[in-house]
Structure formats: structure tokens, C-alpha cells
Write a structure and sequence with these properties.
This protein is an alpha/beta fold. It has one domain (6-168): Rossmann fold (3-Layer(aba) Sandwich), CATH 3.40.50.980. The protein contains seven helices and seven strands. It has helices at 6-16, 36-52, 69-80, 94-104, 117-120, 144-150, 175-183; strands at 21-27, 30-35, 60-64, 84-88, 106-111, 129-132, 142-143. It has a five-stranded parallel sheet with strand order 4-3-5-6-7, sandwiched between helices. The protein has a two-stranded antiparallel sheet with strand order 1-2. Helix 5 links the parallel strand 5 (106-111) and strand 6. The N and C termini lie far apart (40 Å).
């Protein structure tokens, strides 16, 4: 059995069934669909956008969002850029978000579908490039939508099985809980 990465599998299906529906997402009461091919184009543009904004291959890039189509596409774009995704739970406090971003050394973050972004925003350091998604009502300087317009698709990306695609960071437990965990 030949091992294959998530990116290799995506590329396989994009090649084999380009016009089949890959993702469906209700946005503002209307269903939006992406074929494998249209999602691939958006992912390639986002990968190039990361590089154009000074995020080199090997960098860590956060994803702060509920499960949604843009979460999946951001993850694929991060892989295409040769970067490592840092998923961040959408329910975390700004302090926990800051802890994860700082300890992961994230250079950028995709901000997607969230319930409490106004409170969470304080957890994103000023030096971290933030790419928001207007469709979910979040409008930072860089948005998914304006990057799609201004960036060409990336032409070359790594697809090897030896790449690290994602790192999970667990926010620290309160001091009392840490002591309790050590006793168990």
C-alpha cells in the first residue's frame, strides 16, 4: 500500500473528478458549493498569497475557525505553501489563543467562522498576518476574498510524504489542574 498525504489525496481527486462537488457550506442562508477544481484554484491562490505576504515554506500558520469549507481550504492552502497548520479551537479565550500562536511561532493565521471573534481578536499578536473571511462577517486588512482577486495560483508546491502538515498545541491548564494531573 502506497502512503499518501492529505494533499496528495486532494490532488488525486481534483484530477480524477474536477467538476464533482467537494464542499457545500451554507453562508448567509444560501448554499455555496465548490467543486474539487474550484476549491483547488482557491487553495492555490491562498498558498501564493501566504508567500506573497512573506510567509515562507516551513512556517507555521494558524487556523482559528469552526468547521467550515474555508477551514478545509485554508488547511489545503497551507499544505500547498509548504507550511504547517496550527489548528486553534474556535471556543478558546484570547489568552489561550495568544499562548498557542506565540508557542507555535505562527507567522500568519486564517480567521474564519466564529461566534466571539471580537473577544478573541486580542489574542492575535500584531506581528502575525491575519487573513479573515468576509463571508463570515470578519474583515481584517487581508481577507480571503481580496487575496483571491489579487493573487495568482501557486505554480509549484511540495507533496512529499515526509512533510509535517499539522501541529496540535494544547493550551495550558490552570495551575491547580496541572498539579492534579501530575498526581494521577
Amino acid at each position: 500500500m502506497i502512503a499518501s498525504s492529505p494533499l496528495q489525496k486532494f490532488l488525486q481527486w481534483e484530477n480524477e473528478i474536477p467538476n464533482a462537488i467537494f464542499l457545500r457550506q451554507p453562508i448567509n442562508g444560501l448554499w455555496k458549493t465548490w467543486s474539487w477544481q474550484s476549491a483547488g484554484l482557491e487553495c492555490r491562490k491562498m498558498a501564493n498569497a501566504l508567500h506573497a505576504m512573506g510567509v515562507p515554506a516551513g512556517s507555521h500558520v494558524g487556523i482559528l475557525s469552526k468547521n467550515c469549507a474555508h477551514w478545509i481550504m485554508a488547511d489545503i492552502a497551507i499544505m500547498m505553501a509548504g507550511c504547517v497548520s496550527i489548528p486553534i479551537y474556535p471556543s478558546l479565550s484570547s489568552d489561550s489563543i495568544r499562548h498557542i500562536i506565540e508557542h507555535s511561532n505562527a507567522k500568519a493565521i486564517f480567521v474564519g467562522k466564529l461566534d466571539h471573534y471580537n473577544e478573541q481578536k486580542a489574542g492575535i499578536p500584531q506581528n502575525v498576518i491575519t487573513i479573515s473571511i468576509e463571508a463570515y462577517g470578519i474583515n481584517e486588512t487581508f481577507t480571503w476574498e481580496n487575496r483571491l482577486i489579487s493573487c495568482e495560483p501557486i505554480k509549484k508546491y511540495l507533496t512529499g510524504n515526509s512533510m509535517i502538515y499539522s501541529l496540535l498545541f494544547i493550551p495550558p491548564a490552570p495551575q491547580a489542574n496541572q498539579k492534579e494531573l501530575c498526581r494521577q
